[in-house]
Amino acid sequence: MSGPVEYDLQAGCARLTLSAPDRGNALDAASAGALLAAVQQAGRDGARVILLRAQGRFFCVGGDLAAFAGSDDVGGYVDDLAETLHRTVSELTRSPAVVVSAVQGAAAGAGFPLAAAADVVLAARSASFGLGYGRVGLSVDGGTTLLTQTLGLHRTLRLALLGDRLTAAEAHDAGLVARVVEDDGLDAASEEVVASLLAGSASAAARTKALLREGLGVVPEALMREETLAIRALVESPDGREGVRAFLAKEPPAFG
Fold first, then answer.
1. Beta bridge partners of 16
2. What CATH number is associated with residue 77?
3. Which residues form a coiled coil (predicted)?
4. Rounded CA gap, 62 and 150, in Å?
5. For 193-205, what is each residue's pLDDT tens digit?
6. Is 39 helix (H, G, I), strand (E, B) or coil?
7. Which of 46, 89, 111, 128 could form a disulfide with 143 if both were Cys (CB 3.0 to 4.6 A apart)?
């Protein structure tokens, strides 16, 4: 499987690679659909481990705002994109496979909760984690509300409202990142973790993952549907349209 997402299955590990580095692996309808298809393929193939990684400087800079601006029905476009991304996050969190994400550079906007959907998050020292939706007049999306389980309410509010970013070290201290490694060691560290997981019991890992995630008592799909409704309403609002316009024009937004 090639295109905006590459798929490779070897020895029980499905490696999913975001492969649009010239766009910062930004998510549009095509790339989000390809990512969902790759996750579903991993399920059909019975993958024991899913490794989510990316080409280029950045893991994922979030939604492709140029695609938003170019849509004749921006509300419908964002609704469909959010639903596809949310289904992907749901599939990853509910998969019996252990999901590992390997993050370099920015995991921003929807790229942040996508990386955090993994069970084990690895980060290069260059990695940073941010939301930034407020800067373009939009509410959080992509499963961001699930971050409060790991980061806590007020840290997540700070990231969402002030536009702050977590460094790899800060994300490690917050419990999100399992290991921080030098940039040139990220691939090797990822393969080491994959090998360790594959050497263990698949049934024990799957049962443990299910018990710990279900023990939170949170229904992620319900939370993500609320995110979809909120961002769709805002992207059609004057502030949302101004935020996207200003971002693409590289100008400060003039919100009402």
1. 7, 52
2. 3.90.226.10
3. none
4. 20
5. 999 999 999 999 9
6. helix
7. 89
Residue 28 placed within a domain: yes
CA–CA dist 184, 152 (Å, integer): 31
Specify the pTM.
Answer: 0.94
Residue 8 identity (one-letter amino acid): D
Q: Which residues contact 89 (CB under 8 A, 6 or more apart)?
A: 113, 114, 117, 142, 143, 146, 220, 224
In a domain, 223, yes or no: no
pLDDT at 104: 98
Residues spanned by the domain of 102: 5-186+198-214
Residue range 8-54, pLDDT digits in tens:
999 999 999 999 999 999 999 999 999 999 999 999 999 999 999 99
Render pLDDT for 196-246 as a digit per residue (tens, 0 to 9): 999 999 999 999 999 999 888 777 788 888 899 899 999 999 999 999 999
Classify residue 221: in a domain, yes or no. no
Distance, first Cα to last Cα, the chain = 45
Q: Please check whether residue 36 is in contact with residue 95, taking contact to mean a CB–CB distance below 8 angstroms.
A: no
Question: Closest Cα partner for 205 from 41, 50, 8, 53?
Answer: 50
